[in-house]
Amino acid sequence: MIDLDKDFEMKMGHLSRRTHELEIPVMIIIEGALASGKSRLANALYMTLDAKYTDFFATHPPMEVDKRYPFLYPFWKALPKNGDINIHFRSWYAHLIDYEAQGIKDNIRVDYKYIRDDIYNFEKTLIDRGYEIIKFYVHADDDVKKEHLKALEENPASQWKAEEFQERMDNVNYEKEMEIFLENPTPSPWTILDFKDEQSSVESLFETIFDRLERCIEHREKKKKPNVDGEFIENYKPTLFNFDFDKESLDKDDYKDKLEPLQMRMREIQFKLYEKKMPLLLVYEGMDAAGKGGNIKRTRMFLDPTGYTINAVSAPTEIELAHHYLWRFYIDVPRSGHISFFDRSWYGRVLVERIEGFATNKEWKEAYQEINNFEKSLVHSGAIIVKIFLSLDKDEQLERFKDREKDPDKEWKLTDEDWRNRDKWDQYIQASEEMIFNTNTSEAPWYVIPGNNKRYARVEALKRIVEFCERRLEE
Prior knowledge:
By secondary structure, the chain is α/β, with parallel strands linked by helices. The chain has helices at residues 6-21, 38-47, 73-77, 92-102, 112-128, 142-154, 159-171, 174-183, 198-221, 252-276, 292-299, 318-321, 327-330, 352-356, 361-380, 394-406, 416-423, 425-439, 454-474; strands spanning 26-32, 54-58, 85-89, 132-139, 190-194, 280-286, 308-312, 339-343, 384-391, 446-450. The strands form two sheets. It has a five-stranded parallel sheet with strand order 2-3-1-4-5, with helices on both faces. A five-stranded parallel sheet has the order 7-8-6-9-10, with helices on both faces. β2 (54-58), α3 (73-77) and β3 (85-89) form a beta-alpha-beta unit. The radius of gyration is 26 Å and the shape is globular. This is Polyphosphate:AMP phosphotransferase. Keywords: Transferase. Residues 11-210, 250-470 form the Polyphosphate kinase-2-related domain. Pfam families: PPK2.
Protein backbone atom coordinates (compact mmCIF):
# COMPACT_ATOMS: atom_id res chain seq x y z
CA MET A 1 0.00 0.00 0.00
CA ILE A 2 1.31 3.44 -0.92
CA ASP A 3 1.80 5.81 2.01
CA LEU A 4 0.53 9.11 0.61
CA ASP A 5 1.79 12.46 1.84
CA LYS A 6 -0.98 14.40 3.62
CA ASP A 7 -0.02 17.53 1.68
CA PHE A 8 -0.85 15.68 -1.56
CA GLU A 9 -4.26 14.71 -0.23
CA MET A 10 -5.05 18.26 0.87
CA LYS A 11 -3.90 19.82 -2.39
CA MET A 12 -5.76 17.26 -4.48
CA GLY A 13 -8.90 17.92 -2.44
CA HIS A 14 -8.58 21.68 -2.92
CA LEU A 15 -7.99 21.49 -6.69
CA SER A 16 -10.78 18.96 -7.30
CA ARG A 17 -13.23 21.14 -5.38
CA ARG A 18 -12.19 24.13 -7.48
CA THR A 19 -12.63 22.25 -10.77
CA HIS A 20 -16.06 21.20 -9.51
CA GLU A 21 -17.01 24.79 -8.71
CA LEU A 22 -15.84 25.91 -12.17
CA GLU A 23 -17.66 22.96 -13.81
CA ILE A 24 -14.50 21.63 -15.48
CA PRO A 25 -14.89 17.93 -16.41
CA VAL A 26 -11.68 15.96 -15.82
CA MET A 27 -10.64 12.59 -17.25
CA ILE A 28 -7.54 10.86 -15.86
CA ILE A 29 -6.29 7.95 -17.97
CA ILE A 30 -4.02 5.31 -16.43
CA GLU A 31 -2.55 2.81 -18.87
CA GLY A 32 0.26 0.34 -18.25
CA ALA A 33 1.31 -3.27 -18.72
CA LEU A 34 -0.10 -6.02 -16.52
CA ALA A 35 1.64 -6.23 -13.12
CA SER A 36 3.28 -2.84 -13.73
CA GLY A 37 1.87 -1.31 -10.53
CA LYS A 38 -0.75 0.86 -12.18
CA SER A 39 -3.52 -0.42 -9.87
CA ARG A 40 -1.59 0.83 -6.82
CA LEU A 41 -1.21 4.28 -8.38
CA ALA A 42 -4.86 4.35 -9.46
CA ASN A 43 -6.03 3.46 -5.96
CA ALA A 44 -3.75 6.05 -4.35
CA LEU A 45 -5.29 8.70 -6.61
CA TYR A 46 -8.85 7.46 -6.13
CA MET A 47 -8.49 7.66 -2.32
CA THR A 48 -7.74 11.39 -2.48
CA LEU A 49 -10.88 12.32 -4.42
CA ASP A 50 -14.40 13.09 -3.23
CA ALA A 51 -16.54 10.06 -4.04
CA LYS A 52 -19.55 12.30 -4.76
CA TYR A 53 -17.86 13.76 -7.83
CA THR A 54 -15.62 10.88 -8.92
CA ASP A 55 -16.18 7.71 -10.95
CA PHE A 56 -13.74 4.88 -11.57
CA PHE A 57 -13.99 2.92 -14.83
CA ALA A 58 -11.98 -0.23 -15.43
CA THR A 59 -11.98 -1.12 -19.14
CA HIS A 60 -12.34 -4.87 -19.62
CA PRO A 61 -11.52 -6.94 -22.71
CA PRO A 62 -14.47 -6.63 -25.16
CA MET A 63 -17.45 -8.90 -24.46
CA GLU A 64 -20.31 -9.78 -26.79
CA VAL A 65 -22.42 -6.84 -25.63
CA ASP A 66 -19.57 -4.43 -26.49
CA LYS A 67 -19.52 -5.71 -30.06
CA ARG A 68 -23.15 -4.65 -30.56
CA TYR A 69 -22.27 -0.96 -30.26
CA PRO A 70 -19.80 1.47 -31.87
CA PHE A 71 -16.21 1.18 -30.68
CA LEU A 72 -16.26 4.44 -28.68
CA TYR A 73 -19.75 3.90 -27.23
CA PRO A 74 -18.67 2.88 -23.68
CA PHE A 75 -16.42 5.92 -23.39
CA TRP A 76 -18.98 8.42 -24.68
CA LYS A 77 -21.53 6.87 -22.33
CA ALA A 78 -19.16 7.25 -19.37
CA LEU A 79 -18.26 10.92 -19.93
CA PRO A 80 -18.08 12.87 -16.67
CA LYS A 81 -20.55 15.65 -15.98
CA ASN A 82 -19.25 19.20 -15.82
CA GLY A 83 -17.22 19.46 -12.64
CA ASP A 84 -16.82 15.71 -12.12
CA ILE A 85 -13.72 13.51 -12.43
CA ASN A 86 -13.41 10.14 -14.16
CA ILE A 87 -10.49 7.80 -13.62
CA HIS A 88 -10.12 5.40 -16.55
CA PHE A 89 -8.13 2.35 -15.53
CA ARG A 90 -7.17 1.24 -19.02
CA SER A 91 -9.04 3.17 -21.69
CA TRP A 92 -9.83 3.40 -25.40
CA TYR A 93 -6.16 2.63 -26.08
CA ALA A 94 -6.21 -0.73 -24.30
CA HIS A 95 -9.64 -1.36 -25.83
CA LEU A 96 -8.27 -1.03 -29.36
CA ILE A 97 -5.26 -3.21 -28.54
CA ASP A 98 -7.66 -5.91 -27.29
CA TYR A 99 -9.66 -5.60 -30.52
CA GLU A 100 -6.55 -5.99 -32.64
CA ALA A 101 -5.23 -8.90 -30.58
CA GLN A 102 -8.53 -10.79 -30.87
CA GLY A 103 -9.11 -9.78 -34.50
CA ILE A 104 -12.55 -8.38 -33.63
CA LYS A 105 -14.36 -6.93 -36.63
CA ASP A 106 -17.99 -7.41 -35.53
CA ASN A 107 -18.61 -3.70 -35.10
CA ILE A 108 -15.68 -2.32 -37.08
CA ARG A 109 -16.17 -2.06 -40.84
CA VAL A 110 -12.82 -0.41 -41.57
CA ASP A 111 -9.11 -0.89 -41.00
CA TYR A 112 -8.06 -0.34 -37.39
CA LYS A 113 -6.04 2.71 -38.44
CA TYR A 114 -9.32 4.59 -38.93
CA ILE A 115 -10.32 3.77 -35.36
CA ARG A 116 -7.03 5.34 -34.28
CA ASP A 117 -8.15 8.49 -36.12
CA ASP A 118 -11.49 8.31 -34.31
CA ILE A 119 -9.68 8.13 -30.96
CA TYR A 120 -7.66 11.23 -31.86
CA ASN A 121 -10.80 13.12 -32.91
CA PHE A 122 -12.66 11.94 -29.78
CA GLU A 123 -10.01 13.44 -27.51
CA LYS A 124 -9.80 16.65 -29.53
CA THR A 125 -13.58 17.09 -29.50
CA LEU A 126 -13.63 16.82 -25.71
CA ILE A 127 -10.63 19.09 -25.15
CA ASP A 128 -12.07 21.74 -27.47
CA ARG A 129 -15.19 21.75 -25.31
CA GLY A 130 -13.29 22.29 -22.06
CA TYR A 131 -12.55 18.74 -20.89
CA GLU A 132 -9.20 18.24 -19.17
CA ILE A 133 -7.70 14.88 -20.21
CA ILE A 134 -4.60 13.80 -18.24
CA LYS A 135 -2.92 10.61 -19.49
CA PHE A 136 -0.40 8.40 -17.72
CA TYR A 137 1.48 5.34 -18.90
CA VAL A 138 2.97 3.24 -16.11
CA HIS A 139 6.21 1.54 -17.14
CA ALA A 140 7.88 -1.26 -15.20
CA ASP A 141 10.85 -3.41 -16.18
CA ASP A 142 10.68 -7.21 -16.16
CA ASP A 143 12.17 -7.53 -12.66
CA VAL A 144 9.53 -5.27 -11.15
CA LYS A 145 6.71 -7.13 -12.94
CA LYS A 146 8.09 -10.50 -11.79
CA GLU A 147 8.21 -9.21 -8.24
CA HIS A 148 4.58 -8.08 -8.44
CA LEU A 149 3.47 -11.40 -9.95
CA LYS A 150 5.36 -13.35 -7.30
CA ALA A 151 3.58 -11.43 -4.54
CA LEU A 152 0.23 -12.28 -6.15
CA GLU A 153 1.13 -15.97 -6.55
CA GLU A 154 2.24 -16.34 -2.94
CA ASN A 155 -1.06 -15.01 -1.62
CA PRO A 156 -3.80 -17.73 -1.88
CA ALA A 157 -6.44 -15.02 -2.22
CA SER A 158 -4.79 -13.53 -5.33
CA GLN A 159 -3.37 -16.61 -7.08
CA TRP A 160 -6.19 -16.48 -9.61
CA LYS A 161 -5.20 -12.94 -10.53
CA ALA A 162 -1.58 -13.94 -11.15
CA GLU A 163 -2.76 -16.76 -13.44
CA GLU A 164 -5.08 -14.40 -15.33
CA PHE A 165 -2.29 -11.84 -15.72
CA GLN A 166 0.11 -14.47 -17.04
CA GLU A 167 -2.42 -15.74 -19.57
CA ARG A 168 -3.16 -12.26 -20.87
CA MET A 169 0.53 -11.33 -20.97
CA ASP A 170 1.10 -14.35 -23.21
CA ASN A 171 -1.77 -13.41 -25.57
CA VAL A 172 -1.51 -9.64 -25.93
CA ASN A 173 1.59 -7.70 -26.90
CA TYR A 174 0.27 -4.66 -25.09
CA GLU A 175 3.54 -2.83 -24.48
CA LYS A 176 4.66 -2.96 -28.09
CA GLU A 177 1.31 -1.62 -29.29
CA MET A 178 1.27 1.12 -26.67
CA GLU A 179 4.68 2.32 -27.87
CA ILE A 180 3.00 3.38 -31.12
CA PHE A 181 0.46 5.50 -29.24
CA LEU A 182 3.15 6.99 -27.02
CA GLU A 183 5.34 7.94 -29.98
CA ASN A 184 2.59 9.58 -32.03
CA PRO A 185 1.20 13.04 -31.16
CA THR A 186 -2.18 13.16 -29.44
CA PRO A 187 -4.40 16.10 -28.41
CA SER A 188 -3.42 15.49 -24.77
CA PRO A 189 0.19 14.53 -23.93
CA TRP A 190 1.29 11.35 -22.16
CA THR A 191 3.24 11.32 -18.90
CA ILE A 192 5.34 8.18 -18.47
CA LEU A 193 5.77 6.95 -14.88
CA ASP A 194 8.55 4.49 -14.07
CA PHE A 195 7.38 2.26 -11.25
CA LYS A 196 10.87 1.10 -10.34
CA ASP A 197 10.85 3.71 -7.58
CA GLU A 198 7.33 3.53 -6.17
CA GLN A 199 7.48 6.74 -4.18
CA SER A 200 8.85 8.89 -7.01
CA SER A 201 6.23 7.49 -9.41
CA VAL A 202 3.35 8.46 -7.12
CA GLU A 203 4.88 11.91 -6.59
CA SER A 204 5.21 12.39 -10.36
CA LEU A 205 1.57 11.31 -10.80
CA PHE A 206 0.25 13.91 -8.39
CA GLU A 207 2.61 16.69 -9.45
CA THR A 208 1.52 16.25 -13.07
CA ILE A 209 -2.14 16.34 -12.07
CA PHE A 210 -1.60 19.41 -9.88
CA ASP A 211 0.16 21.25 -12.71
CA ARG A 212 -2.55 20.42 -15.27
CA LEU A 213 -5.44 21.30 -12.95
CA GLU A 214 -3.85 24.57 -11.84
CA ARG A 215 -3.37 25.59 -15.46
CA CYS A 216 -6.91 24.72 -16.54
CA ILE A 217 -8.35 26.51 -13.48
CA GLU A 218 -6.32 29.63 -14.28
CA HIS A 219 -7.46 29.50 -17.90
CA ARG A 220 -11.13 29.11 -16.91
CA GLU A 221 -10.97 31.96 -14.40
CA LYS A 222 -9.52 34.31 -17.04
CA LYS A 223 -11.96 33.26 -19.74
CA LYS A 224 -13.67 36.23 -21.38
CA LYS A 225 -17.37 36.44 -22.12
CA PRO A 226 -17.80 34.84 -25.57
CA ASN A 227 -19.71 36.19 -28.57
CA VAL A 228 -23.14 34.64 -29.12
CA ASP A 229 -24.60 36.76 -31.93
CA GLY A 230 -24.67 33.89 -34.46
CA GLU A 231 -22.99 36.06 -37.11
CA PHE A 232 -26.07 36.31 -39.32
CA ILE A 233 -26.21 38.25 -42.58
CA GLU A 234 -29.00 40.77 -43.05
CA ASN A 235 -31.30 40.07 -46.01
CA TYR A 236 -29.69 36.67 -46.53
CA LYS A 237 -30.37 35.23 -50.00
CA PRO A 238 -30.78 31.43 -49.96
CA THR A 239 -29.11 29.36 -52.67
CA LEU A 240 -30.17 25.86 -51.64
CA PHE A 241 -33.87 26.24 -50.88
CA ASN A 242 -34.90 27.93 -54.14
CA PHE A 243 -37.29 25.19 -55.16
CA ASP A 244 -40.23 25.47 -57.48
CA PHE A 245 -42.44 24.03 -54.76
CA ASP A 246 -45.48 23.77 -57.01
CA LYS A 247 -43.58 21.59 -59.46
CA GLU A 248 -42.65 18.91 -56.89
CA SER A 249 -46.01 17.24 -56.27
CA LEU A 250 -47.69 13.85 -56.38
CA ASP A 251 -51.38 13.01 -56.78
CA LYS A 252 -53.16 10.47 -54.57
CA ASP A 253 -53.11 7.61 -57.08
CA ASP A 254 -49.38 7.91 -57.80
CA TYR A 255 -48.75 8.26 -54.09
CA LYS A 256 -50.48 4.94 -53.31
CA ASP A 257 -48.75 3.18 -56.18
CA LYS A 258 -45.28 4.34 -55.15
CA LEU A 259 -45.40 4.41 -51.36
CA GLU A 260 -46.24 0.83 -50.39
CA PRO A 261 -43.55 -0.88 -52.53
CA LEU A 262 -40.97 1.40 -50.93
CA GLN A 263 -42.33 0.63 -47.47
CA MET A 264 -42.11 -3.11 -48.15
CA ARG A 265 -38.57 -2.70 -49.47
CA MET A 266 -37.73 -0.82 -46.26
CA ARG A 267 -38.94 -3.84 -44.29
CA GLU A 268 -36.63 -6.09 -46.32
CA ILE A 269 -33.76 -3.70 -45.65
CA GLN A 270 -34.48 -3.91 -41.91
CA PHE A 271 -34.06 -7.71 -42.03
CA LYS A 272 -30.89 -7.37 -44.11
CA LEU A 273 -29.45 -4.88 -41.61
CA TYR A 274 -30.11 -7.33 -38.80
CA GLU A 275 -28.52 -10.16 -40.74
CA LYS A 276 -25.38 -8.11 -41.45
CA LYS A 277 -25.37 -6.56 -37.95
CA MET A 278 -25.34 -3.01 -39.31
CA PRO A 279 -27.08 -0.18 -37.41
CA LEU A 280 -29.04 2.49 -39.28
CA LEU A 281 -29.53 6.10 -38.15
CA LEU A 282 -32.23 8.10 -39.93
CA VAL A 283 -31.95 11.80 -39.14
CA TYR A 284 -34.80 14.23 -39.92
CA GLU A 285 -34.38 18.00 -39.79
CA GLY A 286 -36.37 20.81 -41.41
CA MET A 287 -38.60 23.79 -40.85
CA ASP A 288 -41.35 23.60 -38.25
CA ALA A 289 -44.45 21.86 -39.67
CA ALA A 290 -42.43 20.52 -42.63
CA GLY A 291 -43.72 16.99 -42.02
CA LYS A 292 -40.91 15.22 -40.16
CA GLY A 293 -43.31 13.19 -38.02
CA GLY A 294 -45.43 12.16 -41.01
CA ASN A 295 -42.32 11.07 -42.91
CA ILE A 296 -41.10 8.96 -40.00
CA LYS A 297 -44.54 7.38 -39.60
CA ARG A 298 -44.65 6.28 -43.29
CA THR A 299 -41.05 5.03 -43.25
CA ARG A 300 -41.66 2.73 -40.28
CA MET A 301 -45.14 1.62 -41.33
CA PHE A 302 -44.24 -2.04 -42.01
CA LEU A 303 -41.11 -2.35 -39.87
CA ASP A 304 -40.73 -4.85 -37.05
CA PRO A 305 -41.19 -2.67 -33.93
CA THR A 306 -38.72 -4.76 -31.93
CA GLY A 307 -35.93 -3.53 -34.23
CA TYR A 308 -36.24 0.25 -34.13
CA THR A 309 -36.55 3.20 -31.74
CA ILE A 310 -37.87 6.75 -32.15
CA ASN A 311 -35.91 9.62 -30.63
CA ALA A 312 -37.98 12.79 -30.55
CA VAL A 313 -35.43 15.42 -29.59
CA SER A 314 -36.46 18.40 -27.50
CA ALA A 315 -34.63 20.91 -25.31
CA PRO A 316 -31.85 19.26 -23.29
CA THR A 317 -32.51 18.34 -19.67
CA GLU A 318 -30.40 19.53 -16.75
CA ILE A 319 -28.32 16.33 -16.76
CA GLU A 320 -27.84 16.58 -20.54
CA LEU A 321 -26.67 20.19 -20.26
CA ALA A 322 -24.07 19.02 -17.74
CA HIS A 323 -22.46 16.81 -20.41
CA HIS A 324 -20.89 17.34 -23.81
CA TYR A 325 -23.69 18.23 -26.26
CA LEU A 326 -23.11 15.04 -28.29
CA TRP A 327 -23.35 12.79 -25.21
CA ARG A 328 -27.14 12.50 -25.18
CA PHE A 329 -27.14 11.40 -28.83
CA TYR A 330 -24.29 8.91 -28.58
CA ILE A 331 -26.03 7.02 -25.77
CA ASP A 332 -29.06 6.64 -28.07
CA VAL A 333 -27.21 5.24 -31.10
CA PRO A 334 -28.66 1.87 -32.12
CA ARG A 335 -26.96 -1.41 -31.44
CA SER A 336 -25.93 -3.51 -34.41
CA GLY A 337 -28.77 -4.54 -36.70
CA HIS A 338 -31.22 -1.98 -35.31
CA ILE A 339 -32.64 1.33 -36.55
CA SER A 340 -32.88 4.66 -34.74
CA PHE A 341 -35.07 7.48 -36.03
CA PHE A 342 -34.08 10.99 -34.90
CA ASP A 343 -36.85 13.59 -35.12
CA ARG A 344 -34.39 16.49 -34.84
CA SER A 345 -30.87 15.69 -33.72
CA TRP A 346 -27.36 16.84 -32.79
CA TYR A 347 -27.74 19.46 -35.53
CA GLY A 348 -29.54 21.60 -32.97
CA ARG A 349 -26.05 22.79 -32.05
CA VAL A 350 -25.71 24.69 -35.33
CA LEU A 351 -29.39 25.55 -35.69
CA VAL A 352 -31.44 26.51 -32.62
CA GLU A 353 -28.41 26.85 -30.31
CA ARG A 354 -26.72 29.18 -32.78
CA ILE A 355 -29.87 31.19 -33.45
CA GLU A 356 -30.92 31.55 -29.82
CA GLY A 357 -27.39 32.23 -28.52
CA PHE A 358 -27.19 29.01 -26.48
CA ALA A 359 -23.89 28.18 -28.23
CA THR A 360 -21.07 30.67 -28.63
CA ASN A 361 -19.84 31.61 -32.10
CA LYS A 362 -16.72 29.52 -31.47
CA GLU A 363 -18.77 26.52 -30.34
CA TRP A 364 -21.17 26.33 -33.27
CA LYS A 365 -18.40 26.97 -35.82
CA GLU A 366 -16.30 24.13 -34.40
CA ALA A 367 -19.38 21.90 -34.21
CA TYR A 368 -19.40 21.29 -37.98
CA GLN A 369 -16.14 19.33 -37.83
CA GLU A 370 -17.03 17.75 -34.49
CA ILE A 371 -20.27 16.44 -35.98
CA ASN A 372 -18.52 15.19 -39.12
CA ASN A 373 -16.01 13.30 -36.95
CA PHE A 374 -18.82 11.98 -34.75
CA GLU A 375 -20.73 10.62 -37.75
CA LYS A 376 -17.57 9.27 -39.37
CA SER A 377 -16.74 7.29 -36.22
CA LEU A 378 -20.21 5.71 -36.32
CA VAL A 379 -19.73 4.74 -39.96
CA HIS A 380 -16.34 3.24 -39.11
CA SER A 381 -18.17 1.08 -36.59
CA GLY A 382 -20.53 -0.19 -39.29
CA ALA A 383 -23.40 2.29 -39.14
CA ILE A 384 -25.40 3.65 -42.06
CA ILE A 385 -26.45 7.30 -41.64
CA VAL A 386 -29.03 9.01 -43.86
CA LYS A 387 -30.02 12.63 -43.21
CA ILE A 388 -33.25 14.11 -44.55
CA PHE A 389 -33.89 17.87 -44.58
CA LEU A 390 -37.52 18.78 -45.34
CA SER A 391 -37.79 22.25 -46.83
CA LEU A 392 -40.95 24.32 -46.76
CA ASP A 393 -41.79 27.76 -48.06
CA LYS A 394 -42.91 30.42 -45.62
CA ASP A 395 -46.48 30.77 -46.90
CA GLU A 396 -47.08 27.00 -46.70
CA GLN A 397 -45.77 26.95 -43.14
CA LEU A 398 -48.23 29.68 -42.17
CA GLU A 399 -51.11 27.71 -43.68
CA ARG A 400 -50.12 24.63 -41.70
CA PHE A 401 -49.83 26.62 -38.50
CA LYS A 402 -53.37 27.98 -39.02
CA ASP A 403 -54.71 24.50 -39.79
CA ARG A 404 -53.23 23.21 -36.56
CA GLU A 405 -54.82 26.05 -34.59
CA LYS A 406 -58.25 25.09 -35.93
CA ASP A 407 -57.91 21.31 -35.55
CA PRO A 408 -58.45 20.04 -31.95
CA ASP A 409 -56.53 16.87 -32.84
CA LYS A 410 -53.48 18.83 -34.00
CA GLU A 411 -53.44 22.02 -31.94
CA TRP A 412 -51.06 20.39 -29.44
CA LYS A 413 -48.43 20.33 -32.19
CA LEU A 414 -48.34 24.14 -32.35
CA THR A 415 -46.44 25.97 -29.60
CA ASP A 416 -45.40 29.52 -28.82
CA GLU A 417 -41.88 28.47 -29.71
CA ASP A 418 -43.02 27.65 -33.27
CA TRP A 419 -44.27 31.21 -33.72
CA ARG A 420 -41.02 32.63 -32.26
CA ASN A 421 -39.01 30.48 -34.65
CA ARG A 422 -41.08 31.77 -37.55
CA ASP A 423 -40.11 35.33 -36.62
CA LYS A 424 -36.49 34.27 -37.20
CA TRP A 425 -37.16 32.59 -40.54
CA ASP A 426 -34.24 34.20 -42.38
CA GLN A 427 -31.81 33.16 -39.66
CA TYR A 428 -33.08 29.57 -39.78
CA ILE A 429 -32.65 29.55 -43.55
CA GLN A 430 -29.07 30.79 -43.33
CA ALA A 431 -28.15 28.43 -40.48
CA SER A 432 -29.76 25.47 -42.27
CA GLU A 433 -27.96 26.11 -45.55
CA GLU A 434 -24.59 26.55 -43.86
CA MET A 435 -25.21 23.37 -41.86
CA ILE A 436 -25.89 21.36 -45.01
CA PHE A 437 -22.93 22.79 -46.93
CA ASN A 438 -20.56 22.02 -44.02
CA THR A 439 -21.81 18.55 -43.05
CA ASN A 440 -22.83 16.91 -46.32
CA THR A 441 -20.32 14.04 -46.54
CA SER A 442 -20.02 10.82 -48.51
CA GLU A 443 -20.30 8.87 -45.23
CA ALA A 444 -23.45 10.67 -44.12
CA PRO A 445 -25.13 12.63 -46.94
CA TRP A 446 -27.91 15.17 -46.72
CA TYR A 447 -30.99 14.84 -48.93
CA VAL A 448 -32.86 18.15 -49.19
CA ILE A 449 -36.48 17.53 -50.15
CA PRO A 450 -39.17 20.13 -50.89
CA GLY A 451 -42.03 19.48 -48.48
CA ASN A 452 -44.94 21.65 -49.63
CA ASN A 453 -46.58 18.55 -51.07
CA LYS A 454 -46.59 16.00 -48.25
CA ARG A 455 -47.16 13.03 -50.53
CA TYR A 456 -44.19 13.92 -52.73
CA ALA A 457 -41.94 14.49 -49.69
CA ARG A 458 -42.82 11.14 -48.10
CA VAL A 459 -42.17 9.14 -51.24
CA GLU A 460 -39.01 11.03 -52.16
CA ALA A 461 -37.50 10.75 -48.67
CA LEU A 462 -38.23 7.03 -48.46
CA LYS A 463 -36.83 6.49 -51.95
CA ARG A 464 -33.55 8.21 -50.99
CA ILE A 465 -33.29 6.16 -47.80
CA VAL A 466 -33.86 2.88 -49.63
CA GLU A 467 -31.38 3.72 -52.40
CA PHE A 468 -28.60 4.71 -49.99
CA CYS A 469 -29.14 1.70 -47.73
CA GLU A 470 -29.09 -0.66 -50.69
CA ARG A 471 -25.85 0.87 -51.89
CA ARG A 472 -24.19 0.55 -48.49
CA LEU A 473 -25.44 -3.00 -47.99
CA GLU A 474 -23.97 -3.99 -51.35
CA GLU A 475 -20.62 -2.49 -50.34
